Amino acid sequence: MITIRPSEERGKANLGWLDSKHTFSFGSYYDPNYMGFASLRVINEDKIAPTQGFNTHSHQNMEIITYVLEGELEHKDSIGNGSIIRPGDVQRMSAGRGIAHSEFNPSSQETVHLLQIWIQPNQIGVDPSYEQKYFADDEKQGKLRLIASEDGREGSVKIHQDADLYVMLLGKNEEIKHNIPENRSLWLQIVRGSGKINGHIVNVGDGVAITQEKKLDFIATEDNTEILLFDLA
Where does Fe cation bind (predicted)? Predict the structure, then answer.
């Protein structure tokens, strides 16, 4: 079964300094039909104005992945980490029994554009931890590149959940085929560009829930198409 979550139907929040679109229920946006998908709980597409950001706030028992599309994001947390996250970087923060952090756009001119992803963990109360890795474009071009997994294989960041997160970059008419293991569900998020998934047309910002399918066939219909693929228990 293929179910498309159109970009324009996502929840919206505009605070002036923050323009955010919510794939699933988040904050003041509530849709009982979109409370998450398997262990995937949040995909927020955020645009943060120059010199603005989220003041220090806390999280518990959540796997949080930050994926920057444009600009830079400055991170500081209560366990001593401080970094700048740029396009190509994947940041993973396991909140565990509790962590506080802040996220700011350090630029005085450029907006930072990013995805905030939350995955519910399969363990609670773990020690909070942090990881950040860079994945070059040539590792993703024309193929699925694993960037997050439970076992950290293939150099991916490690999360506390039976979930694999892949990214792929495709030129126009490039195609990816993927066999779906039994009893797994997939979520695709169209980050840039457009394409056809098992014959269904999808565009930038769309999400796609895939259940009870054996194969995934994605063809890009424009250059510089970028897709995130979540393979979930």
Answer: 57, 59, 101, 103
pLDDT tens digits for range 57-96: 999 999 999 999 999 999 999 999 999 999 999 999 999 9
Residue carrying the six token digits 């104005």: 49
- The answer to whether the beta carbons of residues 228 and 115 sit under 8 Å apart is yes
3-state secondary structure 36-95: CECCEEEEEEEEECCCCEEEEEEECCCEEEEEEEECCEEEEECCCCEEEECCCEEEEEEC
How close are the terminal C-alpha atoms of the chain, in Å? 16
What is the spatial distance between Cα 197 and Cα 220, in angstroms, rounded to a whole number? Answer: 9
Which residues define the annotated binding site for Fe cation? 57, 59, 101, 103
Q: What is the CATH number of the domain that holds 98?
A: 2.60.120.10
- Which phi and psi (to 5°) does residue 118 adopt? -115, 130
Specify the length of the chain in residues. Answer: 233
Domain range for 45: 2-232
Count of structural domains, the chain: 1
Q: What's the pLDDT at 108?
A: 97
**Of 61, 13, 60, 64, which is closest to residue 43 (Cα–Cα)?**
64
Name the binding residues: 57, 59, 101, 103
